[in-house]
């Protein structure tokens, strides 16, 4: 008997090994590790307007400011650890025969927790790339020091993340669409579900017949569309869900 959460009989019966499961995560799953979310009361966007920092135009207009903002965030991420929510999703992966984890997060915490084959829709904050020749830099080795550093080709180095108005990595989004339209059970965890195309994944799953569950501390844009909402912290709800696995 699990005393922490109450779930429907429908969800309970879907928590079987054979169910095809897709999980989409957002900033909320990393909040309990100490990564600020983007929106809401304590969101990053309260201090900085997104269009000032998370667009290519913003980077071109003020590369130093944007680079320093990412350096500040990298520093936060380097010092923290995955939480119980990330760890529970490793249990999900080990339990379900068909499991796909898709994240909008750039913090790499799912990987650090032990999740495999994580689909990163918005890139990874640790990786960088040259805006001129496109060379990918896993570290800053080989770049010319500066704020931001420069590529030997002369181009500025930027974080390899997806900014507003930019295309998502083609393979990642194609895979995300494909598995979302084929799953039986879809979890939308710790995301405000306002940024597209990621926000359309739960809707695609729902339209294709999946049972859609959201896990969030408060209602979101998709609350009225999902089959079940589990309100609470991901770091508490997800370990409780694992206890229902047969
Ligand atoms: C907890 C919790 C706890 C807290 N437990 N829960 C269709 C309609 C309208 C607009 C568009 C559309 N298609 C495209 C657009 C434009 C745009 C867009 O979506 N705009 C909307 C905002 C209106 N999309 C794009 O531009 C995308 N590109 C694209 O579509 O390309 C095609 C194209 C190109 C050119 C022209 C036309 C088409 C790219 C989007 C890139 C998003 N990038 C960012 C920054 C990444 C780099 C970085 O990190 O700096 O990605 S923005 C930011 O938002 C980041 C996040 O991944 C993303 C989503 O945020 P998320 O994860 O949902 O976080 P929050 O803070 O919003 O929510 C946290 C939630 O957690 C809250 O609900 C809390 O309650 C909850 N919570 N603690 C559980 N403990
Ligand atoms: Zn270059």
Which key features would you list for this structure?
246 residues, alpha/beta, Rossmann fold, SIR2/SIRT2 'Small Domain', six-stranded parallel sheet, three-stranded antiparallel sheet, elongated, binds ligand BJW, binds zinc ion
Structure characterization notes:
With 246 residues, this protein is of the alpha/beta class. It folds into two domains: 1-34 and 82-122 and 167-246, Rossmann fold, CATH 3.40.50; 36-79 and 128-161, SIR2/SIRT2 'Small Domain', CATH 3.30.1600. It is built from ten helices and nine strands. The chain has helices spanning 9-14, 28-31, 50-53, 56-61, 63-78, 84-95, 109-113, 170-180, 201-207, 234-242; strands at 20-25, 98-103, 119-120, 123-130, 136-137, 157-161, 185-189, 211-216, 228-231. The protein has a six-stranded parallel sheet with strand order 3-2-1-7-8-9, with helices on both faces. The chain is elongated and about 60 Å long. It starts with 8 loop residues before the first helix and ends with a helix. The mean pLDDT is 95. Bound molecules: ligand BJW and zinc ion.
Brief write-up:
The chain has ten helices and nine strands.
What is the end-to-end distance? Answer: 12 Å
Q: Describe the main β-sheet briefly.
A: 6 strands, parallel
CATH architecture of the largest domain: 3-Layer(aba) Sandwich
What would the average pLDDT be, to the nearest integer?
95
Text of the CATH class of the largest domain: Alpha Beta
Query: Would you report the number of β strands?
Result: 9
Radius of gyration: 19 Å
What is the assigned CATH homologous superfamily of the largest domain?
TPP-binding domain
